[in-house]
Amino acid sequence: MKTAQKYAHLALSWVCIGMLFSCHEDQDIGLDNTYQFIRPAHFPEPVYTFENNPVTKKGFELGKKLFFDPILSRDGSVSCNNCHIQGTAFADAQQHPLSVGVEDRRGTRNAPSLTNLAFMKEFFWDGGVTHLDFTPTNAIESEVEMDESLANVVKKLKAEAAYPPLFKEAFDIEEITSPYMLQALSQYLAMMVSADSKYDQYVKGEAFSKEELEGLALFEDKCSACHAGVLFSDFTYRNNGLSDTFPDEGRARITEFAGDIGKFRVPSLRNVALTAPYMHNARFKTLQEVLDHYDTGVVDSPTLDPLLKKRERGLGIALSEDEKTKIIAFLHTLTDRTFISDTRFMNR
Amino acid sequence: MKSIQLLALSALILLFSACKDDELEAQTFGTFEVEFDNRVGSEAISLEEAGSQNYSYTTASGQAFNLSLFGYYISKIKLEGPNGELYEDEMKVSPHADEVKGFYQVLQSEPASRFIQLENVPAGTYHRITFTVGIADEGIQDGAAGGILDPAEGAWFWNWNAGYIGIAMEGSAQNSGQEEVVGDGWTIPAKSFALHVGGWKDVPAATGEEQRFVNNVKTISLAFDSGVRVGEALEPNAHIVVDVLKLLGNVDFSTTYSVHVPKAGQPFAENIPAAFILDHTHQ
């Protein structure tokens, strides 16, 4: 009897699991998928813990409201949207090479674009945060960003008439607490999937121009060892030769390992044409400058990536002007107009 | 489609509950209390105001100090008996405060937090307790959590290197190198110290490379002198002494007064096994 029951369990749970998952596939046309997380068919499995925080319309909308609300900062002057703007794929505005927080305080790093976060295991340039839910707290509590305490944000949200009913609707809770606020933000953030660029169309069979095709081939040859795969990053930490002094130690801050000084996360290059300036310290204003760096600017240091030491003479990656032009043409195919004009993310 | 799904789910739930009932019939349960008794050597702890220069204790190497805050997280409690008896405290991370299970913050300033009541322990004899000091990956990688794990409710959380501080020791020491720091709405008093022991990432070093990351989460396993019986109408207890002097070891406050990264906390974490001592059990 017991064993029979067990098998019945197993069979049934597979049926259930099968059904649950079938709702999340790309092909589910005809249903309203507006507030479903959908993995693009050519993307890997997401790593975000959706099982603990399933996306719902109410949760997503609450997350969006929080994202645009300066109540999250100490003096009510800065919202997440100050540094993460949809028009630049949720990177910083270009006039802010390093982030600008309350009282115009300057940060030390360039705000990265927020896309495809549900596929990422580690966050920030140094990978210090290992779950998407914990990313907003860094901005909220950073003295140079929002300079507010999580406890006080919760207190302010409780006192603001609009919020308690919204939390109740989204999570069925009577009292606002920080984990639910973080989950709402994560729902909004995790839905930021950029997978409809010209490159994605190309992957699905659309044509590239001759220049774009040549650019892709050059990219695969010279760049994709680090900017790998469909997310254009292997999510390792490397030193790409920006300098031989490291006021910001990067990955070593987290690993406490001298061999990681000067290493930063290989950033995704999706929407890169929109996210200038470039690098963790906003060193370069244009993609041309970035490619000039790889060609002639790479500086040696003990942690410089071995891949940038493979040239016969000098360091970096040999690139002719013609090759640079073609790679830049290819990088422009990573711009996803659908994503930056997706009305779901807009503060309406 | 929806209704089939519901049907399948409810069938599943029914089946699961059926199993549980079968097992319940045979078993009886009791409680078990774990008491953490924090001390400095042989003395009881009395906390001072932060910044107080009234030094009641001395370290093994003779440095005078006091404590203004002392506490730690305990998780993953397990009891084992000689005949296969096994109790594993349920562990659960949830945004909902009431659903968080198996994590405890023992705070010297909150006497009640020193007593952990384990419920529904299968009746039997137990001779060993095992628990974790600090919070390992399962407390972090499930995402934002409520209650005892909610930083807005006082949980000790590092934002920049996401994870919980496992042990916090704060106070003042006569020879502390700390100078006064006055910030925007906060002060670090002169002669104070703050030793925060955290870090949970456990990544073995690649061959030929130094260790990256420091894992300061420690698992402690303590044997009882004799078997302790758990059952209906019994109120057994394990009394565990936690000795701050042993945790501090040979600290030199003149150089070590501000510990806020895993590597600097490692020497204290290495002292954890010696500092958690089974004093006695009550039947």
Question: Brief overview, please?
Answer:
The complex is a heterodimer of chains A (348) and B (283). Chain A is an all-alpha fold and 348 residues long.
| Broad shape of chain B | globular
- Give a quick account of the main beta sheet of chain B: strands, pairing sense, barrel closure: 10 strands, mixed
Classify the secondary structure makeup of chain A into a structural class.
mainly alpha
Oligomer: heterodimer
Give the low-confidence spans of chain A: 1-29
How would the blueprint of this fold be written?
The complex is a heterodimer of chains A (348) and B (283).
Chain A: H1 2-22, H2 57-67, H3 80-83, H4 135-141, H5 150-159, H6 163-171, H7 178-190, H8 198-203, H9 210-222, E1 237-238, H10 252-255, E2 264-265, H11 287-297, H12 321-332, H13 337-340
Antiparallel strand pairs in A: 1-2
Chain B: H1 2-26, E1 29-40, E2 43-44, E3 57-58, E4 64-80, E5 86-88, E6 103-107, E7 115-122, E8 124-133, E9 157-158, E10 163-173, E11 181-182, E12 187-188, E13 192-198, E14 218-230, E15 237-243, H2 244-248, E16 258-259, H3 262-275, E17 276-282
Parallel strand pairs in B: 1-15, 13-16
Antiparallel strand pairs in B: 1-2, 1-7, 3-4, 4-5, 4-6, 4-8, 4-10, 8-14, 9-10, 10-13, 11-12, 15-17
Structure description:
The complex is a heterodimer of chains A (348) and B (283). Chain A folds into two domains: 57-193, Cytochrome Bc1 Complex, Chain D, domain 2 (Orthogonal Bundle); 198-337, Cytochrome Bc1 Complex, Chain D, domain 2 (Orthogonal Bundle), CATH 1.10.760. Chain A has 13 helices and two strands, in the order H-H-H-H-H-H-H-H-H-E-H-E-H-H-H. Chain A has helices at 2-22, 57-67, 80-83, 135-141, 150-159, 163-171, 178-190, 198-203, 210-222, 252-255, 287-297, 321-332, 337-340, and strands spanning 237-238, 264-265. Chain A has a two-stranded antiparallel sheet. The longest helix of chain A has 21 residues, at 2-22. The radius of gyration of chain A is 22 Å and the shape is globular. The relative contact order of chain A is 0.13. Chain B is α+β, with helices and mostly antiparallel strands. Chain B contains three helices and 17 strands. The longest helix of chain B has 25 residues, at 2-26. The radius of gyration of chain B is 22 Å and the shape is globular. The interface between A and B is large, with 48 and 45 residues.
